Automatic annotation (TrEMBL):
The keyword Transmembrane helix applies. Residues 10-237 form the Heparan-alpha-glucosaminide N-acetyltransferase catalytic domain. This is Heparan-alpha-glucosaminide N-acetyltransferase catalytic domain-containing protein. Keywords: Membrane, Transmembrane, Transmembrane helix. The chain crosses the membrane at residues 12-31, 51-72, 79-98, 104-120, 127-146, 183-203, 224-246. It comes from the Bacteria. It comes from [Bacteroides] pectinophilus ATCC 43243.
Length: 250
């Protein structure tokens, strides 16, 4: 049954989840700065547990981005802002942290997915939501395992063309010499975005959107969730400075 009550354009619990994830992200990046820029001795940070923590942050952001597609109308503006933010991050890190630059990071991915969905939305609406959630998530898991364990290395004279190698890396086909400290190509991550997209439709069909996400306000945290993009853009320089001060003091 379709949900008969009007769905709020802002769902407080979604902002709360996003705000809590922003706090986790800031904490993770602060520790990254301490460990990799200022040589702090934090063995746990290089453990499998820290990797799971990092992945949970990224998964949450991408799922919420797909889920939130349905909550706004200015998709072109949102997509361009996110993609543009990703370009800025890439340029700044290339200048300031040439050995630890970000290429095709999470903002580039989210912006790309939003823009791609402008073309796909009408077609994807015809797919049953339950099928969409299941198929998207299974494809994500399969492709994630494949790209992680055995990234494709293509060899051809054309791959000497720099822009072509970048396009392949953007899609998800790794090439020799490519590196990025925050790498989220379209494959497999576009299918995690799709999972969030279909999850919203599935819960809406069950009449659960407002019931699950209509309440949940925590002052400060919801604010972070509402302004996640700008906070993402400004948090890293602040983390650099604070990490520097901490390293100098301790």
């Amino acid at each position: 049954m379709l949900e008969t009550t009007q769905i709020k354009q802002r769902l407080p619990f979604i902002d709360l989840i996003r705000g809590m994830t922003i706090i986790e992200m800031i904490s993770y990046h602060f520790l990254w700065d301490l460990v990799y820029l200022y040589n702090a001795d934090i063995p746990w940070y290089k453990s499998h547990g820290a990797y799971i923590w990092q992945q949970s942050i990224c998964w949450t952001f991408i799922l919420l981005a797909g889920f939130s597609w349905h909550l706004g109308k200015k998709h072109m503006k949102r997509g361009l802002w996110a993609f543009g933010g990703g370009v800025v991050v890439s340029l700044v890190t290339a200048i300031v942290l040439s050995n630890d630059r970000v290429r095709f990071g999470v903002l580039t991915l989210i912006g790309s997915c939003i823009l791609i969905w402008i073309l796909l939305d009408k077609v994807l609406k015809k797919i049953p939501a339950g099928v969409g959630v299941s198929v998207s998530f299974v494809l994500f898991l399969i492709l994630r395992s494949w790209t992680k364990q055995d990234p494709i290395q293509l060899s051809d004279n054309l791959l000497n063309v720099t822009w072509l190698k970048s396009v392949l890396a953007y899609i998800g086909f790794l090439q020799t010499g490519f590196s990025s400290t925050d790498y989220f190509p379209l494959l497999p991550w576009i299918f995690l975005f799709a999972t969030g997209y279909f999850l919203y439709s599935f819960l809406q069909e069950k009449g659960l959107i407002n019931r699950l996400f209509g309440k949940g306000k925590v002052p400060g945290i919801n604010f972070l969730g509402k302004h996640s993009l700008i906070i993402y853009m400004i948090h890293q320089p602040i983390c650099y400075v604070v990490a520097f001060l901490v390293s100098e003091i301790f």
